[in-house]
Amino acid sequence: MNVKELISKALEAREKAYVPYSDFKVGAALLSKSGNIYTGCNIESASYTPTICAERTAISKAVSEGDREIEAIAVVGNPQDYTYPCGVCRQVIREFGKDATLIIAKNEEEYKVYKLEELLPFSFGPEDLDK
Ligand code: THU
Questions:
Q1: For ligand 1, atom 13, which residue shows the shortest CA distance?
Q2: What is the pLDDT of residue 131?
Q3: Which 3 state secondary structure label does DSSP give 49?
Q4: N or C, where is the chain less crowded by C-beta within 10 Å?
């Protein structure tokens, strides 16, 4: 996996963020197990609750193209600080990436790497519903 490339794509996607209410841009880049990259930005709404985070935009793009397995996802929010995925996004990453690697970045040089399990321990997922 090319971590710097993934961060660079997340930074590029961040520029597309539609954030008239929070003014807080987030970009994400998802690497699927099959080797494709899908990017996403946060998209806000005047009625607030329909807002979608960058991570879930990227996941929606991947899944709707038939790519359901997340190898890694890079996230860039505030470039001055590390922006960690919200709880909802962690759960959606869990759905498609029990073993996913999360790259939380300020830029291509400054980033932290985690496994999903570290950010969402004792998680609930699809296997729990297996009969
Ligand atoms: N946001 C994301 O895109 N990803 C996260 O994991 C954290 C929050 C967005 C949602 C909203 O547009 C803005 O950041 C402020 O909450």
A1: 24
A2: 66
A3: coil
A4: C
| pLDDT (tens digit per residue) in 14-35 | 999 999 999 999 999 999 999 9
What is the Cα–Cα distance from 127 to 131, expressed in whole angstroms? 9
Given the CA of residue 51, which atom of ligand 1 is nearest to it?
Answer: 12
Mean pLDDT of the chain: 97
7 close to 103: Cβ distance less than 8 angstroms: yes
For residue 11, the one-letter residue type is L
Cβ count within 10 A of residue 75: 29
Phi-psi sector, 122: left (phi>0), alpha (psi -120 to 50), beta: left
In the predicted structure, residue 6 carries a pLDDT above the cut 80: yes
Look at residue 98 and give its three-state secondary structure. coil
